[in-house]
Write a structure and sequence with these properties.
alpha/beta; Rossmann fold; five-stranded parallel beta sheet; 8 strands; 48% helix; binds 2'-deoxycytidine-5'-monophosphate
């Protein structure tokens, strides 16, 4: 069976990573969460005071972008943790503050250029499932299977809300929804590699699909594409 590249793009919180992880597990492919890479850059900038709620010090970020090393290491539970310059930041990068920062640093062309370069290296040998916003359009325009995943903002906010509530009881649904809408707007309207469906991507709206139904659709597509010469 030939090895392929699977690109999964879509809005935030529509289940891209669940879908990608499940596919990687079933097929033995490597999974790369590119959102985690932008989040790691965001965390690095926040920690160094190069980014506040209102401002970004682009000069400093650009000066240090090549000293940011991001890796994924499998933990004892078999899950991939994100490492920033050798430190496990998997928990720290999942906060709203870091997510917001990620959506801002991801508008910077030099940040995207460096992360795209790292992502292309990771996928050189194929056998990879990568999720993000620009995988099918910029990172791997020749990917054999491209998925564009969507769901309504309310459904996505509800999913993120339930996920966050497990860790923090004070989380507020309206705030989560506002954050989802704000990030959608920024992802779609930025000048650098805005989120859009690649012409040859297959769109799946999972608002009313169960995880099992969604996975069955994906596995069928995967079998179809890996069988082709
Ligand atoms: O998927 P996520 O919520 O973890 O992504 C965090 C932010 O990073 C999101 O606002 C958009 C940005 N991002 C991007 O611009 N390009 C990617 N390939 C992945 C994420």
């Amino acid at each position: 069976m030939k090895k392929i590249v699977v690109a999964i793009d879509g809005f935030s919180s529509c289940g891209k990573s669940t879908m990608a992880k499940e596919l990687a597990r079933e097929t033995g492919y490597i999974y790369v969460d590119t959102g985690a890479m932008y989040r790691a850059v965001s965390l690095f900038c926040i920690k160094n005071d190069w980014m506040t709620d209102t401002e970004m010090n682009e000069t400093e970020i650009e000066k240090h972008i090549h000293s940011i090393r991001i890796e994924f290491r499998t933990n004892a539970q078999g899950k991939a943790d994100t490492y920033l310059n050798g430190v496990n930041v998997e928990t720290e990068i999942r906060t709203l503050e870091v997510a917001n920062g990620a959506s801002r640093v991801s508008t910077l062309g030099f940040v995207r250029k460096e992360l795209v370069r790292q992502q292309q290296l990771m996928g050189e040998k194929k056998g990879i499932v990568m999720d993000g916003r620009d995988i099918g359009t910029v990172v791997f325009p020749n990917a054999e299977l491209k998925i564009f995943l969507t769901a309504s903002p309310q459904v996505r906010a509800q999913r993120r809300f339930l996920e966050m509530k497990e860790k923090d009881d004070s989380v507020n649904f309206e705030k989560v929804l506002a954050n989802v809408l704000e990030r959608d707007d920024r992802d779609q309207n930025r000048a650098e590699s805005p989120l859009r469906k690649a012409d040859d991507a297959i769109e799946i709206d999972n608002s009313d699909l169960s995880p099992a139904e969604q996975q069955a659709i994906l596995m069928n597509l995967f079998r179809e594409r890996t069988a082709l010469d």
